[in-house]
Amino acid sequence: MKRIVSFAVIVAGLTVLLCGCSIINPQSSSDDKTDELCSAIISSIEENNHDKLKNLFSEEALEKCTDFEEGFEYTVNEYKGSLTNVKPVSYTEDAHFDKGKHSIESRALYSIETTEKSYYLYMYFYPSNTIEPTKEGLYRIILLDNRAEKSYDQYAGIYNPKWDVEE
After folding, report:
1. Cβ of 1: how many Cβ atoms within 10 Å?
2. CA distance 98 to 133
């Protein structure tokens, strides 16, 4: 009997050691929040609700963005059909800590299916930022019907084709 109890304790201990991070800090909360953000972006586009989408962006992004209205108009006109499927493709997160404060920088890619077209939705955002609170929120979104072939790191706001013109 002692052997069975010892074996059970060892198996439980190894399980906690090998899977401890996912048991203590499950990814689902980040995933759920990112999924909610994706849903809010899509519903803003489908409803043609400029203000609803703008409220998701950080203060810093809105200050740096010079073409928010153009990007919103382009995206609303480009989005065709009714939503049928949303699937996360990738998610990366970088956490930064400084004197008890933190910053979480995230990038997510979703596959979006509508009744008429397929898209990729790229999101760059700060879900939390106590180091620089003006950065908290969306920084950049890109909705394309194909995978992005270049980097748009220099831009804030909503993609529009002018971003593809080299300066």
Report:
1. 5
2. 13
What is the distance between the alpha carbons of residues 95 and 19, in angstroms, rounded to a whole number?
21
C-alpha 121/C-alpha 114 separation (Å) is 13
Domain ranges of the chain: 28-164
Burial 2-12 (b: 16+ CB within 10 A, else e): eeeeeeeeeee
Say if residues 138 and 56 touch (Cβ distance below 8 Å). Answer: yes
* Tens of pLDDT, residues 40-69: 999 999 999 999 999 999 999 999 999 999
By the 10 Å C-beta count (0-12 exposed, 13-18 middle, 19+ buried), 155 is classed as buried
CATH code for the domain defined by 28-164: 3.10.450.50
Q: Which residue has the tokens 């048991």?
A: 23
- Tens digit of each residue's pLDDT (9 = 90 or more) over 102-161: 999 999 999 999 999 999 999 999 999 999 999 999 999 999 988 788 889 999 999 999
DSSP 148-161: --S--TT--EE--G
